[in-house]
Design brief:
3-stranded antiparallel β-sheet; 10 helices; alpha+beta; 11 strands
């Protein structure tokens, strides 16, 4: 349990940078302390909101805060309902001064995919895509590019499969990150590996420069692929 003051004293960053990162992590402030919601609980909250949107036939671009708090306040703490709307929606105020949220399609589709994939080691890709589309709120469209840095498609298996691979679960050290990725897959295309190394780029450094330093390129069936410069144990 950390307060903003605790984080400022522990982390070499400005308050603005710390608050921005907390927002990226979807952290919420409860009684002055920053907390991360358990993923299952977060999905339970999101499900409450999306079911309410569906039952009220609200447009996904205009979800009223007051009605959400009124309807769901008996099920969950009101600040948690507002937190989930802030995490998965864009807040705005209409001409009458009422607060609404425009729900973020990509973020919701990504969260639903994570929920589906976390219970399976590997998922048949076509079956997953079908179940995934059925599981998101009506009016939303699922696309594989929503899963960058979250899941990986294995096109070499028959049938093609998909599995959970979260960038935040990989090592932070550059060499260890590449070792870890090359253990998972011997050869990577630039498109596939980029979401898993983009965060390692120093200021003004490109993904291409990182690959040149830590990987060796070759051509495979007319496509440039990258493998490790050193043997991976």
């Amino acid at each position: 349990q950390y307060t903003t003051e605790d984080l400022l004293s522990l982390i070499q960053a400005s308050e603005e940078e710390i608050l921005h990162q907390l927002q990226v992590m979807d952290a919420c402030k409860i009684e002055g302390y920053w907390r991360i919601l358990d993923f299952d609980y977060e999905m339970k909250l999101l499900n409450h909101v999306t079911q309410l949107i569906d039952s009220e036939s609200w447009p996904l671009s205009k979800v009223p805060l007051s009605a959400c708090l009124e309807e769901l306040g008996s099920l969950e703490p009101r600040e948690m309902i507002e937190h989930i709307l802030l995490s998965y929606g864009r807040k705005y105020v209409d001409d009458a001064g009422e607060i609404f949220f425009e729900m973020l399609e990509d973020k919701i589709c990504r969260a639903v995919a994570q929920m589906l994939l976390r219970n399976a080691v590997k998922f048949n890709l076509s079956e997953f895509e079908e179940v995934w589309q059925q599981s998101v709120p009506e009016g939303m469209t699922t696309r594989l590019d929503q899963l960058q840095g979250l899941a990986l498609v294995d096109k070499s298996s028959r049938p093609e499969t998909i599995f959970l691979l979260k960038v935040e679960d990989l090592p932070e050290d550059n060499q260890e990150r590449f070792n870890s990725l090359f253990r998972i897959r011997q050869k990577w295309t630039e498109v596939d590996i980029t979401p898993y190394i983009r965060d390692l780029c120093a200021e003004k450094q490109t993904v291409g420069a990182l690959l040149t330093k830590y990987a060796r390129s070759s051509m495979l069936n007319g496509v440039k692929v990258y493998n490790s410069r050193r043997p991976i144990s």
